[in-house]
Amino acid sequence: MKNYVAYVGSYSYTGKAKGITIFDVDVERGSFKKRAEVEVDNASDIVVSSDRRMLYAVEDYGVVAFRILPDGGLVRVSSKKVNGMRPHHICVDQEGKYLYTSGYHDGKLTILRLDPDGAVGPIVDEVYHKGLGSIAERGSRAHITCSKPTRDMRFVMSADPGIDQVSIYRFTGRPGEIRLVDAIRTARGSSPYFFTFSKDNRFLYLLFDMTNAIDVYRYTVSEDRGMPEFTKLQTVCTTGDNAPGSLNAATCMTFTAHDHYIFVGNAGDNSVTLFSRDAETGLLTAEFNLPISGEYPKDVAVFPDGQHIVSVNHESGTLSFFKVDYEKKLIVMNTNEIPVSQPNCCVIVPVGEDA
């Protein structure tokens, strides 16, 4: 059996957490055991490279790169400022060429080049979103919460709940050549918050936090103009059959390894919803909506066996663990929760010679 470790990113400004907590993972039991902490100033998000050699984390005013050791330990390699405020979200492309950061506070997309050894290089391009939105508590201005390339690497997309839009850019990799080519314009007050593509790159799943919804789109590229085309196929409620109350907000969306299922966390009612996914049509079907035994599930991570999940509960400062029964459509808490101060995110990574 492979060995796995989990990395949990936390805010550190209260002094109760250092930034990243490393856990040993018991896949069979579906549990974590704390090993160590690594200092990062306010790790609002973390991501692991596709070859699992590097871990990248947000820190105040920039990003930091760590090399993942064979035992799962972390060694700081480099850090870079992003010429702006602390990013909200971070993403690395499948080829390990670029790092993409999303600025919630300043509405800034920043793309940094990665060196061959995985260290963070210089800024290649940066774009500030402009415009006015409709959500008063967000200042009615641009706030980028998620930026990623399409899986074919032809475009870069940025979700902005402040202006109710997903901007689509053509990115060549040459400095200063990023160009806005289109946008998915969503309803006023819908707040597009996070998105991901299916592994076959055919479907886009766009999560709206204020309206508790997922929109499913078919993604193609026109042969004559080489432009992205998104066809809306479906809208589903993230709180299942329950009415999306005004105090609820969808917080996260996580696929299982083979895209068969999607878990969505909801703050307010503090629940998790499971959707099954049709691989051919891309459409989603709600299977259950159940309480997550914590406050503000900011992330949900799926264990490598696909049979367990961990909920990262930001407000209650806990990690709660569940076994998933897909046939009976329920989750059962399978071990004691673990306290972690203001956790934001979690990734589970194989380590060692078999990784």
Automatic annotation (TrEMBL):
Gene3D superfamilies: YVTN repeat-like/Quinoprotein amine dehydrogenase (2.130.10.10). Pfam families: Lactonase. GO terms for cellular component: cytosol. InterPro entries: Cycloisomerase_2, Lactonase_7-beta_prop, WD40/YVTN_repeat-like_dom_sf. GO terms for molecular function: 6-phosphogluconolactonase activity. Belongs to the cycloisomerase 2 family. This is 6-phosphogluconolactonase. It comes from Stomatobaculum longum.
